[in-house]
Amino acid sequence: MAGKLRFDNPKTLPKPPGYSYVVEATGPVTTIYLAGQLGVDMDNKFVGAPGDFKAQCIKAHDNLTLALKSAGAKWSDVVKINNFLVDITGNMAAYREIRDKYLHAKAPPVSTTIGVPALARPGGLFEIEAIAVLTGKKSKEKAKDKSKEKSKKKKR
Questions:
Q1: What is the model's pTM?
Q2: Residues 59-79: what's their mean pLDDT?
Q3: Which residues contact 45 (CB under 8 A, 6 or more apart)?
Q4: Topology annotation, domain 4-134
């Protein structure tokens, strides 16, 4: 039996702006939990000028894209995102504009966005974390890759 994702916005709730209220995963799946990503480059330095929310937000989304790819996933496999914005009032519109370039518009993940006074890294303005689900064939391919890795390690 192949796995299946169902994205739903119950008619009993108001239409959400750019995210789904419910994502249901059924069948054999691989669940991937992705740590919060900041807008930092390979030198672990924030991108853009100090206070450049847009630059950090784009880079954080790009970093999450790379993390997803490393797990054999893509944005359409994301079922949940949590977003943390410093100065949510001033940055919410920019966040939504950037977010919408990455998410699957017809089946966006469930989402929580929280305004925070600061992030753990001084100078950070935005952080995003996610949960992705690989279903059916993708989940089986991921399991085969893990099995191959274990075999290689045993041979060493």
A1: 0.79
A2: 94
A3: none
A4: 60s Ribosomal Protein L30; Chain: A; (3.30.1330)
